[in-house]
Amino acid sequence: MNSLAAPVATEGTARLLVETVYELSRRAPAIIAAAAREMAGIRLCLHFGDGTHAELRTENSCLIASGELSGNPHVECYFDDRAMRLLFDLERRPVDQLFEGSLDVRGERSTVLAVWRTFQLLAQRASGLRSIQILWREYRDRTPEYWDGKPETAAGAAAGASANGLRLTRNGLQRPSDTGWAALDYLDHRHPEQTDRLPALVGGTLIAKSRLLWDGRKSAQWWKFDAASDSDLMETMLLCKARVRDEIAAIIPQREPKADLYDLMHVYPQREGKGLRPTLTIATCCALGGRGEDAVRAAAAIELFHNGFLVHDDIADGSTHRRNEATLHRAHGIGLAVNTGDALNLMAVDAVLSNLPTLGLGRTLGLIHEIMHMCRETVEGQAIELGWIRNGTVPRRDEDYFHMSTKKTGWYTCISPCRLGAVCAGETNPEILDRFNEAFRLIGIAFQIQDDVLNLVGEAALYGKEPLGDLLEGKRTVMLIHLFRDADPISRGRLDEICRLPRTDKTQEDAEELLDAMRQFGSIDYAIALSNHLAHEGVRRFEEDLAFIPETESKGVLRQIANYVTTRQL
Amino acid sequence: MPAYLKSETSVARARFALGPQGPFPECRLSRDLERRWLHYALLSRDGEFGLVANVALLGPPEENSSARPRMTSILLVYRRGAGWKSSQFNAETSVPQWSAFRQPHSFNSESELRIRSTRGHPAVNLRLQRTSHPCTSQCAPFAGRHHLRWQSETGVVARGDWTHDGVLYPNIEAIGYHERVRGFWGWPEMGGWVFGFANDPALDPSSETSAPPTAIVFTLIQPDEPADAATGSVMLWRSGRLRRHFPRRCVTVSVRGSLDRDRVCHVPDLSNLFGVPAMAPVPRRLVISANMGPDWTMVDFSCDAAARVVIPSETGIKPYSVHELIGAVSVAGSVSGRTFAFDTYGIVEFAGGAGGD
């Protein structure tokens, strides 16, 4: 999630709000998108008892929190310290604790209610995330104690039990009737979940709720429980990325020729990426009931193919930088780079075949079929784009770009990872696999457009490629297509002249001129609006087409990825 | 057949293989879903090794046919840090199988139980000794005429050799649980259950039979229908005698968290290559509380390692799943004015849950 700028340093209680929104934007974009829908167009100003202030507003589907006030709020709220703490303490009923003057809210009824709904949504959904709970706990630890009595601690309970002369277990078990705590209360309050276990690849990022299976009269079957619709995307992506990176390291041989082949193969995939594809593959497998580990080799195969394609793509495009480092052919020459790309593709085939002993023949054949399709789409997409550049063609319709983009990057970035994950879980029914296509096609195009925008307006250090690299290489982006479509004939002639220059002859000034023209004719704003529309449509299709997948934390990961494109700050 | 196994085959003597009927009705298995089970669950005193074994007889495929009952047996052996190893459903067993129910008065004397996979491991060659009395017969009727009847006995002591992953571990002492089941049920009708036990590992100087000072068994049967068929109970033994039965109204059961699917092994091994339905999210923590008059007990179980036993169903294409969990247990309570508390290892079963179960 490297496109999100860290929040400006803010102090006091305002900092908690700003940090919460920032963390949610990175970890659970679906929650932010839902909150932004509730808050649409409303500017909220918050004043806190410690003298700090914060502003909450929306931009497209982004919820923006900052410690600086820009004026003219629709709703203003004042919380004293006590009221603020009540927001984050679900053990206390605010109505029992609030004092007169602790809370003041001003604004029109409908906007106040919209803000209330927003905070209710944030409180209910965000409080399930362990990382957000940690953030809030740190805040609580920093603030004074406002309560008359402290809740009983496990240590206190243990001391009481010891005084009764009862030999204690390590958990300090005590007679339920002495405490009034039956089995559920014991799990909920006395002994929270142990967190020192190895984390699962997907799952475990939510606060686990205790469930009552039997209360003496009624039974709740142990395998049936309330759905979880969210997850911590960042935590999951880090785990999946690291696991797949380890798998890739194990797949690539450690033998000669090292310097000219295997070392390059080891090093290139380690360059920092987002981890989107591995997470999609593993999360889809888990969402369909499979084991995350069963999808790791398939995810590694996609990454190896992806890296092989990138090496070749950089040569074809004449790119100089990739993920903040020199491209492989710039650092080691074209010959070695082509060979390394070939070897990465070969190892990817090896990674797919290595599923045979664990997944069986049927699923492995299914994986090969999906991989073959993915590769075919990718090379076709690459051919379309390279043809456009070679012939100096700029397509006039956005649909042409959608077609090319879906083939070139959409399949292997979004669609195929999901389908491969589903196959790993044992799902080979084409009708089921096709349910992933449209939602992730739209999301993939939106993602690619956003990436192209970031190449023009984002910080180079965050984006990882050379500034304006897309303009230098003549990449046919939505912005360029819009520019050629909407520019006046005189400007278009000059632009065409620049675009037809070979990359080696293009200067930074030429790229700047193209960028200025895009700004002048509104091409960048057009692309942002278009990506926003596609992203929302993608999320809608996600919810519709994939409604058959049960609501679990794994599906929550897929939902967060789908919403990531709607809340990405450009 | 290996030399150490007796010459009579289990199948040939199937009708008698599980021993006398005991308190259960004396009648032969005549229907396809009629079952008899002997179940063994043992843990070495240090929690290093664990064993779950099941020897089952199933009635003939056609009602009132003269065909012999079908027999299946499976052995799972656990070693800490190395996980579970399992036979297929054709483990070889010594005949007749050891059972406290068929040797009801043989306290302080050992007799043999040998089970091994046809490939040689996992395997156990044990001398078992009963130290406690079984509970009275329990019964759970559900789904019309389907029912499950069982008797439990805690404090079973086992000494002998264990083979895990091809390595022999000799002279291991374990303590555990034995159960005999008789009933008539189909797996889809069964729904699911939660079951577990724990024995206080301390030695009871007052006991003449080396019975654990305290032992506990809990059961929660959760069929799909009828709605009121679900039932739970907690039973408590002291010095080898059943002292308290906390019936359904006195018991609450709660769980939290779920096991990471990647860390639950599927057994038998072949089941990994078939399209078995996804595993249900098996809880990681289990807490049971029971209160009756002045008596009470609480059990807190936390899973360390788990295996999913994929059982072929006789009535459908989708298999049934029994999840065997080993983990730390804390037990505390008070019965008849005497308090008890101990930490040990226990085995818990969560059965059912997977799609189609």
Helix content of chain A: 55-70%
Largest sheet of chain B: 10 strands, antiparallel
What CATH first level of the largest domain in chain A would be assigned? Mainly Alpha
Helix content of chain B: under 10%
Q: How many β-strand stretches of chain B? A: 20
* Structural class by secondary-structure content of chain B: mainly beta
User: How many structural domains in the coordinates of chain A?
Assistant: 2
* Overall form of chain B: globular
Side-by-side strand order of the widest sheet of chain A: 3-2-1-4-5
CATH superfamily of the largest domain in chain A: Farnesyl Diphosphate Synthase
Count the DSSP helices of chain B. Answer: 2
Structural class of chain A: alpha+beta
Q: pLDDT average of chain B, as an integer?
A: 85
Cα gyration radius of chain A (Å): 27 Å
The CATH topology name of the largest domain in chain A reads Farnesyl Diphosphate Synthase
How would you characterize the overall build of this protein?
- The complex is a heterodimer of chains A (570) and B (357).
- In chain A, the strands form two sheets. Chain A has a five-stranded mixed sheet with strand order 3-2-1-4-5. Chain A has a two-stranded antiparallel sheet with strand order 7-8.
- With 570 residues, chain A is of the alpha+beta class.
- Chain A folds into two domains: 12-142, 2-Layer Sandwich (Nonspecific Lipid-transfer Protein, Chain A); 233-567, Farnesyl Diphosphate Synthase (Orthogonal Bundle), CATH 1.10.600.10.
- Chain A has helices at 12-27, 29-39, 81-87, 94-97, 109-126, 130-142, 154-163, 176-179, 183-190, 233-251, 258-267, 276-287, 296-317, 328-332, 334-353, 356-391, 398-424, 430-434, 437-457, 460-463, 469-473, 478-486, 489-500, 508-520, 523-545, 553-567; strands at residues 44-48, 53-59, 62-66, 75-79, 103-107, 210-214, 321-322, 325-326.
- Chain A is built from 26 helices and eight strands.
- Mean pLDDT of chain A is 83; it is low at 146-167 and 177-181.
- Chain B has 357 residues and is mainly beta.
- Chain B has one domain: AttH-like fold (Beta Barrel).
- Chain B contains two helices and 20 strands.
- In chain B, a hairpin with an 8-residue loop joins strand 12 (214-222) and strand 13 (231-238).
- Chain B is globular.
- The two termini of chain B are 35 Å apart.
- The chains are: A alpha+beta (570), B mainly beta (357).
- At the A-B interface, helix 9, strand 6 and helix 16 of A face strand 15, strand 17, strand 18, strand 19 and strand 20 of B.
